[in-house]
Specification:
By secondary structure, this protein is α/β, with parallel strands linked by helices. The chain has 13 helices and 10 strands. It binds pyridoxal-5'-phosphate.
């Protein structure tokens, strides 16, 4: 990061940012890419690029873009979110999507975009599902965006290339700062027109950064070197998840790529967390997320602590 060559990225003159954008576009099989300060902004840029004031986007009722991004589409873009129920694995039923698509009539907002998320809380979308939604979008003239904050976890799960996992979509937002381990940043990929439009809105939103190569270099390093390590996080989640299933019952514990969801009763979880805290291990709920800073030695410690906790309770 210290040695990264830098320039003014607002003018497209930062060589490291340019290299990151080229690398990400190629990796995901799209024409162009745009570096953004956060995943929230990169998703918002995609919504702005696909939709205008008075348009609407169709999205799962538990999707990150809808629930956890401050309502930015509506607040800042005058884009109406049309929700449909979202299954635990991130799927929106095809007929549910179709039912909410509005006819071309000035009583209605204009349906423009469908937004999916992969993985969703660690759950990868079924392998053939994105193509089905693509086909639906093509039939209705809608664009398709992916919130791919954890796209590389889904790709790792299916042993696909990132480009295969990104194939069905017009645009994809990826996070460099989640499992990939970079300190900051996201990238939006898409075709040249989408990215040119997003670049304009990035400036408007205050996301145009000057000598951003310093932080972009960490993202580039993560894309080049850290994707292969995600399989290790999945193995760790499986190892801990399986032990938890033995201790607390198979139905209480869901393993999803790099996450373990703990659906056990409140009281049992509290006792478990208190016992782990006694052993200097802090845990949060409702899920435990495994990442590159949790190494084999920590997994070994955690397993010992879990067995001890289960004996206590
Ligand atoms: C983290 C995340 C984002 C983006 O979050 P930022 O904190 O703004 O980078 C978007 N979608 C999902 C599913 C996420 O997990």
């Amino acid at each position: 990061m210290h040695d990264a060559p830098v320039g003014d990225d607002v003018y497209g003159e930062d060589p490291t940012v340019n290299e990151l954008e080229r690398y990400a576009a190629d990796l995901l099989g799209k024409q162009a890419a745009l570096y953004a300060p956060s995943g929230t902004q990169s998703n918002l840029l995609a919504l702005f690029a696909h939709c205008e004031r008075g348009d609407e986007y169709i999205v799962g009722n538990n999707a990150h873009t809808f629930r956890y991004e401050g309502g930015g589409a509506a607040v800042l873009g005058s884009i109406q979110p049309q929700t449909v129920p979202m299954a635990m694995n991130g799927c929106l039923q095809l007929d549910a999507i179709e039912q909410v698509i509005k006819p071309d009539d000035y009583h209605f907002a204009r349906s423009k975009l469908v937004c999916l998320e992969n993985s969703h809380a660690g759950m990868p979308l079924p392998k053939d599902y994105p193509e089905q939604v693509r086909e639906l979008c093509d039939r209705h003239g809608l664009a398709l965006h992916l919130d791919g904050a954890r796209l590389f976890n889904a790709a790792t799960f299916y042993q696909q290339t990132p480009a295969q996992t990104a194939q069905a979509y017009d645009s994809v937002s990826i996070c460099l700062s989640k499992g990939l381990g970079a300190p900051v940043g996201s990238v939006l990929v898409g075709n040249n027109d989408t990215i040119a439009c997003a670049r304009r809105w990035r400036k408007v939103l205050g996301g145009g950064m000057r000598q951003a190569g310093t932080i972009a270099s960490a993202g580039l390093y993560a894309l080049r070197n850290h994707i292969v390590d995600l399989a290790q996080d999945h193995a760790h989640a499986a190892e801990i998840g399986q032990l938890l299933q033995q201790l607390y019952g198979a139905t209480a514990i869901r393993i999803a790529t790099n996450m373990v969801h703990l659906d056990m009763e409140e009281e049992r979880y509290r006792a478990l967390a208190a016992s782990l805290a006694d052993q200097q291990i802090m845990v949060g709920r409702p899920r435990w997320v495994f990442h590159r800073d949790i190494q084999a030695e920590h997994i070994k410690l955690l397993k010992g602590a879990l067995v001890a906790a289960a004996k206590q309770n």
